[in-house]
Amino acid sequence: MANWDHGYVTDVAYTTNAYIETTPSWLAASAIILQHRPVDLTASFRYADLGCGNGLNAMVVAAANPKAQVWGFDFNPTHIENARELAARAGLTNIVFEEMSFEALAKGEADLPGRLDVMVSHGVLSWISLENQRHLAAAFDRWLRPGGLAYLSYNVATGWAAMEPLRLLMRQLADQGQRRSDQEVPDIVAALEQLKTGGALFFQAHPGLEARFEQLKRMDPRYIAHEFLNRDWHPVMFAEVAEMMSEARGQYIGSATLLENIDALSVPPNVVPAIAAVRDPVIRETMRDIGAAKAFRRDLWRRGGEPIPPLEQAARLDALGLVWTGKAMDGSIQFATPFGSLTGQPEFYTPMIELLRKGSVTLAQLRAIPALRDRPLGDFTQAATLLIGAGYAFPVSAIATQAETIASTARLNAALVQRTRLGVDMPCLASPVSGCSVGVTVMEVLAIGRMMEGTPADPERLTDHVLGDLGRSGRSLMNEGEVVRDPVQARAMVANAMREFVAGRLSVLKGLGIVPA
């Protein structure tokens, strides 16, 4: 590795990702639910992604919020080059990508016109040195305005403690190799597999590693390289992060993983009373993480700012919009927890889901459903938390219907389609309605691209186009782990996928504004 990388993997670019919890519309909804004032998305605001990688996350923010000023910072020049190229193709003029370290940001070297309204850093904290962790916190301190919102996510020691010895071995094996980091990954995984199947007692002493190791074997080698092969790998406890953020004058307000703000859905039932008996917020969060064996946190911090008055929260909640994600109910509404799945009250949630599936609605409209009119506001606050947190609804952006928003997200999506046609997998498209990224498959992206260019929603015609696009991009269809070489079988697979897409998913994507209505 080079001297400038501080032991961080830089010989291969990171995977391209976007994270809905970092988008302004999601953060605004979360702030309201947690009784704090959100950023005004109808005005110009300033947003920065620290450790932005290839920049897709920041580009979704810029496209869905064309009045915002957006910055992406990363110390890896390859990431910045990739981000700038895609942003230029998408015609995004309200975003700037800069090659810059956390230390330089902390020292104020960024060319920013003033303090920022929103700052986010996803996952990076766990992969950097203790010194750079302090630089990251100092960057929040220098650049976040009073009342501004910070999002900081990281691996937690409670869920990763048993992985540290294996992670160290993976790093040692990578260091002795002569190839690029991601190219070493298959041999590293094979070595671990040999230890496990050979009866290594460490795996028997930590049975929870079995599921984690099986998951690891299915991951992109580039992700594994960046997750496990850095010199520094520091899953932390909330108390350590709270100490850093207190120096940045940050106040913890809750989790962007919304379900985790409800104790009954976060930890086993018998643990809830122990947490409820504790007043100190740092100890409470530590107990939550131990109770859930938490592996990853998505913390929200505000720079100062008291909770908003209850009446102001009530008004903001009534104005909060929701749109259906397309998640199936399967007869009931389920909320996943670390200890199993809980079923929502059918008499309460079924009428809301039925209205939600017809189009975007506000919480006030849900409260006006005749069968639910007598329910208190607190029930609907929890319902919004559960519907968004469990993946049944996205928050609706305050500028969803503005022509500029629709046009800029369409340009970004067109650029993502073109990258997909060139053989680069793009995992999401941008929704002008939710202001968030929406996960999509390669075939869905290719079909949507053709529809954006005027092809009707006809499964047969889409099949012809998608087959051609797949072939030109050099991709092969897979069936049960084997490459499909029979053209008749390949066409049947694509045709079936297109029929399912047109019959089901297409209406959801139209509702989200990704496909023109």
Keywords:
Rossmann fold, alpha/beta, 517 residues, 3 domains, globular, 48% helix, three-stranded antiparallel sheet, 23 helices, seven-stranded mixed sheet
Question: What does this protein look like?
Answer:
- The protein has a seven-stranded mixed beta sheet with strand order 3-2-1-4-5-7-6, with helices on both faces.
- It is globular and about 65 Å long.
- The protein contains 23 helices and 16 strands.
- Helix 2 packs antiparallel against helix 20 (about 405-420) and helix 8 (about 180-195) crosses helix 11.
- About 50% of the residues lie in helices and about 15% in strands.
- The model has no long low-confidence stretch (mean pLDDT about 95).
- The protein starts with about 25 loop residues before the first helix and ends in a 6-residue tail after the last helix.
- The chain is of the alpha/beta class and about 525 residues long.
- It folds into three domains: about 5-155 and about 235-305, Vaccinia Virus protein VP39 (Rossmann fold); about 160-230, no CATH class; about 320-395.
Describe the protein's topology.
Layout lengths: L23 H10 L12 E5 L5 H9 L4 E6 L2 H13 L5 E5 L2 H5 L9 E7 L7 H14 E12 L1 H4 L3 H13 L4 H17 L3 H5 L3 H9 L3 H8 L9 H10 L2 E6 L7 H4 L5 H5 L4 H12 L3 E8 L6 H10 L1 E4 L9 E4 L2 E4 L2 H11 L4 E2 H5 L9 H13 L3 E3 L7 H19 L6 E3 L6 E3 L2 H11 L6 H14 L5 E2 L2 E2 L3 H25 L6
Parallel strand pairs: 1-2, 1-4, 2-3, 4-5
Antiparallel strand pairs: 5-7, 6-7, 8-11, 8-12, 9-10, 13-14, 15-16
Helix pairs in contact: 2-20, 7-8, 8-11, 20-21, 21-22, 22-23
